[in-house]
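Dear colleague,

Thank you for sharing your sequence with our group. We've completed the structure prediction you requested, and as agreed, I am returning the results in plain text so they can be pasted directly into your records. Please verify that the sequence below matches your submission; if there's any discrepancy, let me know and we will rerun it promptly.
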Amino acid sequence: MKFGPASPTEALGGVTVHTLRQGTLVLKKGTTIGPDEVAELTRAGVREVVVVRLEDGDVSEDAAAASIAQAIAGEGVAVERAFTGRANLFAAKPGVLVVDRAAVDRINGVDEAITLATLQAFKPVVENEMIATVKLIPFGIAATLRDAAVKAAGGAAMRIAPYKVKKVGIVSTLLPGLSPKVIDKTLRVTEERLGPAGAKIIAERRVPHDEKVLAETIHELLQLGAELIIVFGASAIADRRDVIPAAIEQIGGNIRHFGMPVDPGNLLLIGSAGDVPILGAPGCARSPVENGFDWVLMRLLAGLEVTRADLVGMGVGGLLMEIVTRPQPRAPAETDGNRNVAALILAAGRGTRMGGPNKLLAELNGKPLVRIVAEHVLKSKVSSVTVVTGHQAAEVEKALRGLNVTFVYNPDYPDGIASSVKTGIAAVPQGADGAVVCLGDMPLIDAKLIDRLIDAFAPDRSHLIAVPVSDGRRGNPVLWSRRFFPELMALDGDIGARELILKHAEAVTDVAVEGRGAFLDVDTPQALEEARGG
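Please find the predicted structure tokens below.
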């Protein structure tokens, strides 16, 4: 291939290397110079243009890229028409991407002119998702290099393994203290994981954390036709002789491997009963956040064997993001505890449903509502009290005169409660382990309730969010571990943090309460009368 500057006449038949702009003339990179282009260049006063010309034995960039892409593509892979030296490859169906790493390295090692990039091996993909691209650096290469790259592919270097497993059985073992809500959320999360593969939970069982009972339950699911069984233990697997592996062996199954160098996901167990894989799920599998469980699950759903060699090879790249329920997170130890909990009182809203006056200044037993709330909070175990103001800030501060509170103003209060939450969280003292978020219009909340939330807050036991509950209904205030501050800071609009409570159900501890205090917020004149009635 020839490369270099040429006069417009000499450039005839060549391909432009750069986009050329001169006056009104725009000649784009990759344009083949014909008679018309020669005339335009001459009229524009262009004396030379950089072009490339293919020589005998050369192939164009598009032809080379197309040939290499076709050589790579295996089952379930579609190749897009090459353009500007690039041929993209797409998944023709959903499944798991299987890549021959050695073949990819061989192709990239042929010559610097040839590049191949792919998605990560074993990544779950959807139909029409781009999975790889072949890009030629120059405008053409010697045909011998193209042929070498095709040969280096060694046949299809990538394919899509379609999902095969459709029937999944789930067992959850039970111990005292494991909330049914945690299991319910685990099932929802698992259904979402299975959804892209078209797999369904054909049966789920909740049984005591007992080897004999668990073995009988696994056998039952096998009889029901489960093609994959997942066991969520109430207690993490600690040894090959623990309850879950022992139950698998009791039915004649075997343990393929216990543990994996992926964090979160270390305590995953892979066993089998006949041809049916059985997964002992690590605790992080209850979370929707990607963890080692996902890496194994999706391969099994595609009918791919996961060997011990596969697992031990996952260490590089296996350190994933932290999950909030880890008892010993990769964070300074002093950020956990329940001895330093700050309080926020949200008192910035306009209270439009009240129909006029600022509800926070409405009196109950001779005191403004917001002062009653502040006095109760100050009598609790909280280490500090910060009041978020906004609407009629001066009047709210006047109502709290003489109290040991700090004020922070939220200029965005018209945007909704989320802006006040963010303003308050940003003002929480650095040393606080968490914050209890109180509403300034809930005068029946007392210090005892706040203290109970603080007592229930136990990060070392994954109790990171404390919520008052009565008859299955959740109220306020809510205590949040500092670990959730970044997510609280990302809230938006006129909604609070309810979605975060649902998202992190495994981190929530419910505090049973009686009475109306945790549920009565004075939003309307009728609610004010109800509060005045006790």
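Summary note from our side: The chain has a mean pLDDT of 89.

Kind regards,
the structure core
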